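Posting here for the record, re: iron/sulfur cluster.
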Amino acid sequence: MTPMNVSRYNLYSEHLIRRYGEKVYKLPVNLPGTCPNRDGKLGTGGCAYCDEQGAGFEALSSDLSIEEQLAQNRVFFQKRYKAKKFIVYFQSFTNTYLPFDQFCANMEKAAQGEDIVGISVSTRPDCINDQYLDFLAGLQDEKKIDISVELGLQTVNYHTLLSVNRAHTLAEFIDAAIRLRSRNLETCAHIILNLPGDEMADAVENAKVLSALGVKYVKIHSLYIVKGTPLGEAYLRSEFEVTPLEEYLDRVVAFLEYLDPASVIQRLVSRGPFNKVLFSNWGISWWQVKQKIESRLEEMDTFQGCRFNYLNGRALR
Ligand code: SF4
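Prediction output follows.
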C-alpha cells in the first residue's frame, strides 16, 4: 500500500475534492493573442514544437467574449456533470502578454460568480512581473479564490531550452516561481520529459528543481510532433529520434520518485492535436500511455516522492 492509500502519485482530481469538498471543473477561456516568441518581441519562429494555436486546442472560439465563453462552458459542465464549482482557465497563448489594464479587466471578469473557486492563467516565465503579480495577489485576497499561474518551462536543461528556441532559460523560470511563491500564488509547471537532447538525468533534475522551488502543480507531457513546425521538419529529415516508450516510462517513474509528494500532478499524459501530428504517444492513445505509467509504478512498487530526500542539507542527516 502506498503512503497516499489511493494512488501512487498525487492526483489533481483527488486534490480538488480534498480542497473544495467536491469535484471542480475547469472553464477554458480562449483569448485572441500572440506570444512574444512569435511576434518579434523575443523571437519570431516560436518554440520548435509549437503550432500556431499557441499550445491550446480544446476551447471555444476566441471570437466569443470572455463572458460568452464562460457562460457556454458553464452550461455544458452543469448539464453534463451537474458541476457546481469551477476554475477559470486561460489556456492558449500568453495570457499576461497584454497591456496591464486589459489583463486586469480579463481577470476581474473571470472572478465573477459564487461558483468560481479559482483562476488559472497560462503564460511564459518571462512574461510576468511584480505589477501583474501584485494585482493577482490582491484579487486572490479580495475574492477569496485561488489563483495559479501556469508557466511553460518544459525542461531545466538550459542547453535544450536554447535548442528548442524557447527564448528563455532556466533563470527566468526560477525568478517567476520565486515571485509567485512570495505572494502566495501557486505555480503550475509544464514539463516535457523527452525533448530531443534530454536524458534520464534531466528528468530527475526537473523534479528536483521544481520541488526546491515549491512548485505546487505539474503537467507532464510526452513530446508530440506537429506538422509544419521546426521540430516537425527536423523529424521528417530524421535529425533526431523520439525516445523509445520503455525509456520514457522509466523517466516518468524517476521524475515522480524525485518529486515532492506535496506537488500535485495535474496531467500525467498529454494529447496532441489529432489531425496535425507526425508523432504522438508512440501511436497508441493517451490513456494507454497513462495505464502503462501506472502499471510501471505498480510493478516497481514505487510512488511519488519516495526519493524526495535531497533538500535542506542532505549531507547533515
Ligand atoms: S511560448 Fe507557448 S505559445 Fe509561445 S511559441 Fe512557445 S509554446 Fe507557442
